[in-house]
Specification:
The complex is a heterodimer of chains A (about 250) and B (about 280). In chain A, about 25% of the residues lie in helices and about 25% in strands. By secondary structure, chain A is an alpha/beta fold. In chain A, the strands form 2 sheets. Chain A has a 6-stranded mixed sheet with strand order 5-6-7-3-8-9, sandwiched between helices. Chain A has a 3-stranded antiparallel sheet with strand order 2-1-4, covered by helices on one side. The chains are: A alpha/beta (about 250), B mainly alpha (about 280). Chains A and B meet through helix 2 of A and helix 7 and helix 8 of B.
Chain lengths: ~250, ~280
């Protein structure tokens, strides 16, 4: 498998606050990495580093997208945390999905019919056809999350990054979402930030624990002992309807 | 017969004023103002930049004061100050990590303070000062119109060519950065256009009132549509109706035109709100 990007000895953060230290992390094609860690441990910061929204204080992030035929450097799909958008902004569902294509073609207005039909196809696939021309302020949380997912994957990215996609969505869509990710994983590598260890162990292939430092775990089963060795305390939550593995508990009382 | 005579004489008076060049200028100005403010206003209302734009407008008063003192055209001074203030807000809130509203308040009051000091220092009387503060669409001249015309053309062309890019960057800046879109270029160009738009429309409504030309039509439009492009079209129409009727009322009643235009825009807004209220009520049965 080819490497998609590589983070080498990176420190980064906001202003004087160093949130991540000594990060070494490589993602290859078809990887499905679950990123777990406590709140404030630096999960979202790691995503921002990979997306180029934050610059490293030291070390470097190397992308290999350019070496691949037909793939551009911009080709990362991103599903941000839910609460970061202005729901009163006057924009329609279809326009939001199409915005996932800027500026891959060109910065002018015209989109090719192929791109348009691809956007419509995704809208249809996510069950949003009737709401295609509705403005986003009229959508429920789950519907909005579908629209943002469509925007993230409409460009057929080599890498898909999702920040807590399960928050604020209904259970039914949550299950659909993770099944869809499994299908998408045939074509793209996926990085998934989640609090939900049940989801993580049911769907992902490998796990990265982020708590200032990053510890990579080359399997989707992780024990509580390992978590404490990694200095990576997380809440263990499971849902009954999702296929899941229950993780071992601490026995040393 | 008697009433018909009154109506005919009123009509004749109305047709007559269209013959005056000052009135023709004012009419052209209200068309251009409605288009430029309709487009730029939709941008600032959608991005919640109304306060930023108010700050830029008031900061431009510093340029007016210095221009009076130096004996150059006050509009040039206002343009320079407004653009500098606009870029300042954009720079300091992004790079220097300062609170956006605090930066705006400082630039706002700094500009006004500079303007007051320099107008006070200017010997003699400052002509047209009241025009800049309160607006006067009936005294607008050909050079004002030419500037406003070119601005309107530039804004329209930019929006026709880059509509989606502007829309997407405004909607979600972070996502646009991840797509490698030229986000900061878009932000600087747009805030520059906001600065030019407010300054060139100052003659119409004045520094103190011009912001309402960029917000009332958009909020009226937003009552009936939630689509960015339709808000633009609707705002242009509402803006023109408001400024034209304000213009007529101010001419006949001989009251300040800027304030009258804002007043009629507010009346239009309230009427549309009432229509919407009745519509939703009857729709519910």
């Amino acid at each position: 498998m080819k490497k998609l990007f590589e983070i080498k000895d990176v420190d980064t953060g906001y202003g004087d606050v160093r949130v991540l230290r000594n990060i070494n992390f490589t993602v290859k094609e078809k990887d499905f990495v679950g990123i777990i860690g406590p709140n404030g441990g630096g999960k979202t910061t790691l995503l921002k580093l990979i997306l180029g929204l934050l610059k490293p204080y030291k070390g470097e992030v190397v992308y290999y997208f350019n070496d691949m035929p037909g793939v551009r450097n911009a080709n990362i799909g991103y599903l941000p945390q839910f609460n970061e958008t202005d729901k009163k902004f006057p924009v329609s569902v279809r326009d939001v999905v199409m915005s996932g294509l800027i500026p891959a073609r060109k910065i002018f207005n015209r989109y090719s019919p192929g791109e348009k039909s691809k956007a419509d196809e995704l809208i249809e696939r996510l069950g949003m056809r009737e709401k295609r021309d509705v403005s986003i302020g009229e959508l429920s949380g789950g519907e909005l999350q579908r629209v943002f997912l469509a925007r993230a994957i409409v460009s057929s990215p080599a890498l898909l990054i999702l920040d807590e996609p399960g928050t604020y969505v209904d259970n039914r869509f949550e299950n659909e979402l993770y099944e869809l990710l499994r299908v998408l994983n045939d074509d793209m590598a996926i990085l998934l930030v989640s609090h939900d260890l049940g989801i993580i162990s049911a769907y992902v292939k490998t796990i990265a624990c982020v708590n200032t430092y990053l510890t990579y775990h080359d399997s989707n089963v992780i024990t509580a002992e390992e978590l404490s060795i990694y200095n990576c305390p997380v809440d263990v939550i499971t849902h009954g309807k999702v296929p899941h593995r229950v993780l071992q508990e601490h026995n040393n009382k | 017969m008697f009433f018909r005579n009154i109506i005919t004489s009123k009509m004749e008076a109305l047709i007559e004023i269209f013959g005056y060049s000052f009135f023709q200028n004012a009419l052209i100005a209200s068309v251009l103002a409605s288009i430029s403010c309709g487009i730029i206003g939709t941008y600032i209302v959608s991005r919640r930049m109304v306060f930023v734009s108010g700050g830029i407008t008031h900061a431009s008063f510093g340029g007016i004061g210095i221009a009076y003192f130096a004996g150059i055209n006050p509009v040039i001074g206002a343009l320079v100050f407004a653009v500098l203030a606009a870029f300042g807000v954009e720079y300091f809130t992004k790079k220097a990590d300062m609170r956006n509203d605090s930066v705006i308040a400082m630039l706002w009051s700094f500009g006004m303070a500079l303007g007051i000091i320099f107008i006070f220092l200017t010997p003699g009387y400052a002509p047209n000062l009241m025009t800049f503060l309160f607006g006067s669409i009936l005294t607008i001249d050909t050079s004002d119109l030419t500037a406003l015309f070119f601005l309107t053309v530039i804004i329209s062309v930019i929006f026709i060519l880059f509509y989606r890019l502007i829309l997407f960057v405004s909607f979600d800046e972070q996502f646009s950065i991840t797509r490698k879109a030229p986000v900061s270029l878009v932000n600087y160009v747009m805030i520059g256009l906001v600065a030019l738009t407010v300054v060139l429309n100052i003659k119409i409504a004045g520094i103190i009132l011009v912001i309402s030309l960029l917000t009332i039509p958009q909020n009226a439009a937003n009552l009936f549509t939630h689509k960015f492009d339709r808000i633009i079209y609707f705002s242009v129409l509402t803006g023109f109706t408001g400024s034209f009727s304000g213009l007529l009322i101010s001419y006949y009643l001989n009251i300040p035109s800027g304030a009258t235009i804002i007043f009629s825009l507010i009346i239009i807004y309230l009427l549309l709100r009432l229509i919407k209220f009745i519509k939703t009520k009857s729709a519910r049965g």
